[in-house]
Amino acid sequence: MLVYIAKRLLSLIPVLFVVTVAIFLIIHLTPGDPAAAMLGIEASEEEIRALNEQLGLNRPVHEQYMHWVSGVLRGDLGDSIFMRQSVGQAIVEHIGPTLSLAILGQAIALVLAIPFGMIAAYKRGTAVDYSLMGVSLLGLAIPSFLLGLFLMLIVGVQLQWLPVAGYEPLSKGLWEHLQYLILPGLSLGAIQAALITRMTRSSMLEILNLNYIKTARSKGLRELTVLTKHAFRNAFLPILTVIGQTFGTLVTGAVVVESIFNIPGLGQLILNSVVRRDFAVIQGVVLIVTLIYVGINLIVDLLYGAVDPRVRLDRK
Amino acid sequence: MAKENIIAMSRRLKKEQRALRFRRFRSNYGLVIGAVLFALFILIAAIGPYLMPFDPYAMKVTERLQPPSGAHLLGTDEFGRDLMTRIVYGARVSLSVGLVVSLLSSLLGLVIGIYASYYKTLDHILMRICDGLIAIPGVLLAIALMAALGASAMNVIIALTIVFTPNIARVVRSSALVVREQTYIEAMHAQGASDSRILWKHIAVNTLSPLLVQATFVFAEAIISEAALSFLGAGIPAPEASWGNILHAGKLVIYKAWWMVVFPGVFIILSVLGLNLLGDGLRDFLDPRVKLKQKKS
Amino acid sequence: MKFNKISLLALVLLLTTVLAACSKDNSNSGGQNASQSPAGSASPSQEQNAKEYKNELNIALTAQPPTLDTAITVSAVALDTAGNIFEQLYTLNANYEPQPQLAESVEISEDGLTYTFKLRQGVKFHNGKEMTSEDVVASMNRWLTTSSRAKVLLTNAKFEAVDAYTVKLTVEKAASDVLILIASQAQFPSILPKEIVESAPPEGITEYIGTGPYKFKEWKQDQYIHLVRNEDYQGIEAEPSGYYGRKDAPTENLYFHFVTDHATRIAGVKTGKYDVADSIPIESYDELAADKNVDVQTFPGGALTAFLNTSEGLFANQTIRQAVIAALNNDEILLASFAKPELYSLAPGYLSSSQVQWANDAGKEYYNQADQEKAKKLLAEAGYNGEEVTLLTTKDYAEMYTATLVIQEQLRQIGMNVKVDNFDFPTFLETKNDRSKWDLFVASTGYQPTPPQLLAVNPDWAGLNNDTVKQALIDIRGAATPEAAKAEWEKLQQFLYEFGSSTVIGHYNILVATSKNLEGFELFKTPLVWNAKIAK
Is position B15 within any domain? Predict the structure, then answer.
């Protein structure tokens, strides 16, 4: 197991290398002089040159890259030109809402998807099954930002049940916090729900056809017990994979949904930084989100091994 | 094995496959519905603009934000432009972006994928780059690229092609690897066929069906991504009509003009649904391992 | 898969489930909210009152200010916020007359060249230090070099300390508007501690220490600025009027939220999350006016004005500028930007029609021409050949953005190749200073007490560097009588239109929505909240 983890971590190095180079290049191909932007219109040539020197912007690109990476390795993501604070601090201030939203989105997805998937599998071939599958197909076709707009229109504007947009931190109370996150959470969770429903259904179907389920049934166990205890437990593994893969997408999907519902998370941060041309922040956020994404996938793979002893991770 | 034998066998196989395919196509409702929807949208994008009686850009501010009516079937936008005209022109923009992105990334992905499957060192380098790019969440990568490139339709295409190519390259590579291991490739190699001949005549051809399926999904993804980028204001700049742009404006007047959110939204959903059905259908259709009726269980 | 079985039923099923879930959540909310409300306890000073008041006020602004350093920014959102932290020697009352705030009095010499200010004693900065003449001199002299208006209108003026509580201002030429300038609101001279002035970096002070009724507490980037009551505030007792008078600070905490999203601002004021919502988009006027929990207040806001780049690029050519101005259909621009004809008016004057001292309609033959043929002819005359024109704008101010898109279309109609560059507000201001990056921008510019303070005549604002304009300003300010000054201004306004450096598009009212329960709030150019409180 340890060997496996070590190997996985090692294999991340080239990935992260590519990621950082890619992000770095994108930013540095961008026209514009950050030093001039920082100092404003009245800065003199010398002042700009001095700041360029201080920031190391006059050095060759590969040296700048090394400088940035060594900073990143020491936990220093650089400074935001606009916000006059470190990128790290900006990210810390904005990551809470994004995580809250992603977790709620995931929870909504699971609460909807697993029962639906199990029902669809159990009632396979019936109208219930087809309806659920149809809805899930529709769910896959509606991008989260669109669902967000529709929910905003129906639930927020027409019915006025929930706030149209905005955000309150958890410290203001659980309901205050949640009521702003329900619509965005739903819009974010819908696609995951659709995916997980389909996955649950198909892996349940596979299991339900196996002999030991038949045995369990023939023993006269209640159907619910058979479904939840025997079948679901074994169908859980592929479902877990989907959950893991999609949680990463949730964090990134949150970027778009946040901007619709005006939630001050990483998504708002990166979009604001784009219009402000605040590149250090863009760099930092993309890096952090990528790390979260890669990290979650790693954890899922490890869990996979822990849940199913048949999967021998240290092979391969 | 004698050459004649192989040919005869493959002929027989092909004949059987053709019969099977036809039956499969007929029984594959998803494929049919998807294909019809898709064709419909292509039609709208191709000839729709010529049928519209309004100029998509000309403003008539006195008629702003009118609900759907006889004069304006889908209502008007915040500048009094006919919404249906805007959406139809937007279809052209959104679908062209989708089409060009899926073509470009398929082409690039194909080249990268088959070369990677054939040359070990190249494989290592290319696949690490792909892994890295895949690890960066697509929307974020696109946003960062758009920030660097500046907002324009061409740059949306470039950014999305960069986002989607690595995925396609991976798919192509893995099916190319399967082909590569087959004995007849070994045999051709032994007979002295050139690398590029083997690559393009034999390996590439055999990756086409998964590539086609993947390209369909990329098409759908590209439509969504373009809409999302434009919606966020990082995509196609105003006053060009695109579905995402209309939604962006619609959000500002959501209290007053539901039609500006609902109609472009429905167009996006239907086009993506069509492409998803088409992709799923094609996968079932082209994959010989999927047995008839098996889906029912 | 059997997609033909996708039934409407399924969709309905999903929707009802979702809606049912929501409604349940909602009914919970009532109970939880009720149990939560006592959380904010009233401040001690308020407890005797029969009515109980909340200890915080939430104000939703449209944009995040670039800085709170009032001497360097013209950003209205910065001034809305900073006006609670900082005070001036003189300030404007509701009749636009300069009144002493931190000063006690002023004595003007016979020749009009020397102003001697007596300072109020015992005024303390938020850091506990007493305000003396050295702080005033440092602050005022800095302002003379940073304020774009002061640079032009008070060239070579100087503040000096006479004794600890007396400062002297000497100006180059006598002018009728010196006190008004010192008292004016846009880019105003806050009195700061000397140490802060001296250590201020060029991009603005970073420590916000003033003498005002509120102290700076926290700035959460992209979220809010939190101010807290200054318990040691030494104000004046006069009746509140405009920016002048008593400031009681009845509410302990002020939160200025940056809510660029209009839907959020509106929803927030409807639900009571925000007590004041600034710059309500006109789209929502009817809806908010009908809401019984919300008051909508209006105030003559200013002139929506298009500024043309006279110094660089294509628009340096006067004929092209005239073509652009000829093409503009202001009716259309205003309707798109302000939605309801009741909420705007057309007039070529740069000042409000209620400012009888200055209002006139010189230049009306250039105003609202909407003459495409003339525009095309002028373009051909100027040899325009499809060069790209850049309109600069910001989505943070909906009316500016909308107006820009309409102008883009109107210029397209006369055959110009027009691109729109959109930034957030701070970046917009910064980009505006780089004259190579834009050809035209639209801004909503507030009314000024006197013409020389208008942004339209300020060289720093849009790069209008013109000797005729400079001379005209001198003439206006040096005019012997108000009538003569008015005549000079009329001439200048006419010149601005002929020269094509800018054109008024129209006049608008600002809309501010407040909670019905809000007391002591005043809308005078900007929302004034230092006497505001809200019942629980």
Answer: no
